[in-house]
Specification:
mainly alpha; Chitosanase, subunit A, domain 1; 2 strands; about 65% helix
């Protein structure tokens, strides 16, 4: 089976396990969180389930996620990559709303016929940049709206994560440009 380069890019970025107090995602591996895995498994995922993830299982979960959310139906690879990475970071509904906002549509968080019909009418590179721009605005709203300091180090948690989030989106913008 041919590997999806978009999934592979996320796996490369997210490969290491992480369980930091300042990260609302909690225990993750390959970018897969317990809520995401719970949805994929159809039951409440545990830390042991996260720890047991292999790269092959992560690929399978991401491939089925792309099908289930219809993100995989986005033909332009740059746009599909932007939406998929945003979905891994912020959830499918939020990522699809970012896409719909970039398309000038009323965001409902579901890829349906209206969203799919709007996609071919815009240049893929420009649309991908617009999705990334929407994502940066969303990240700014997260940081402005959550000044909690769970790890009690004197720096709001979302401020601690801001640099990594911005770098991640900027790397993707540079790939499109």
């Amino acid at each position: 089976m041919e590997r999806d380069p978009i999934i592979e890019a996320v796996l490369a970025r997210e490969g290491k396990p992480s369980n930091r107090l300042d990260d609302r995602g909690g225990n993750t591996h390959f970018g897969i969180t317990k809520p995401f895995l719970s949805d994929r498994l159809g039951r409440l995922a545990t830390d042991a389930d996260i720890d047991a993830l292999t790269i092959e299982l992560a690929r399978e979960h991401y491939a089925s996620f792309m099908r289930d959310t219809r993100i995989g139906q986005i033909v332009n690879q740059q746009v599909r990559g932007a939406v998929f990475d945003a979905a891994v970071h912020s959830g499918a509904s939020r990522a699809i709303k970012l896409l719909q906002g970039a398309l000038g549509l009323k965001p409902d968080g579901v890829i349906g016929p209206i969203t799919l019909a709007a996609l071919p009418h815009l240049d893929g590179s420009r649309l991908a940049v617009r999705v990334h721009t929407q994502r940066l605005r969303f990240i700014a709203a997260i940081v402005r709206g959550d000044l909690e300091d769970r790890d009690r180090d004197g720096v709001p948690d979302q401020v601690e994560n801001l640099g990594g989030w911005i770098d991640r989106v900027c790397d993707q913008i540079e790939e499109v440009a």
